[in-house]
Amino acid sequence: xxxxTISLEKTSEVKEFxxxxxxxxxxxxxxxGKYVVDAKSILGIYSLDLxxxxxVEIYSDDCADLLAKLSKFAA
Length: 75
Description:
Elements: E1 2-6, H1 11-22, E2 28-32, E3 35-38, H2 42-46, E4 54-58, H3 64-70
Antiparallel strand pairs: 1-4, 2-3, 2-4
């Protein structure tokens, strides 16, 4: 498992994030406090408090390409 803390402050960032994760074959979750949602679900993401950074947990060891893409959202 790999994790990175990101910030999604704008609607356009949320849409771009979901587009990046949609095609991944492995499970990806977003954590904010005690809440955990599927990172591929735009509705799930909007249920989180996006005023604070969130943690992305990627359940794959072969995800260097996705981590590189997500670094633009790094908090």
